[in-house]
């Protein structure tokens, strides 16, 4: 009994860790973004959603959009805060890797190449990326009618 009281007392006396809080905020907001993004992906267009009183988990499309936007802002703010809190370790890591001849050159170049290809495909609306836009159009305009 004395040990439990001591554990509770020492835990409540422990200072609040901002870095840990930010990590949880970013992770949990990413989870909400994932769920709301999936719901909005299959959501009908605005006029169909309004006419049919479309809802998922008791939230209409407008509520899902608001939820998604609020948590997107929270996610971005948390990422910025995370970078600020961890700027010194992050910059030290990047500098040490750069001065020791980055060992992951191929991996970095491959990641950059994939990102650039996806950006070009998305902007130019080319396959296979445009299939995603077609799928969104299908859910918004055809599936719910």
In words, what does this structure look like?
The protein has about 140 residues and is mainly alpha-helical. The protein has two domains: about 1-100, no CATH class; about 105-145, no CATH class. About 80% of the residues lie in helices and about 5% in strands. The chain contains seven helices and two strands. The chain has helices at about 1-15, 20-40, 45-50, 60-85, 85-100, 105-125, 130-145; strands spanning about 55, 60. It has a two-stranded antiparallel sheet. Helix 2 (about 20-40) runs antiparallel to helix 4 (about 60-85). The model has no long low-confidence stretch (mean pLDDT about 85).
Kindly summarize this structure in a few lines.
This protein is mainly alpha-helical and 145 residues long. The protein has 7 helices and 2 strands; from the N terminus they run αααββαααα.
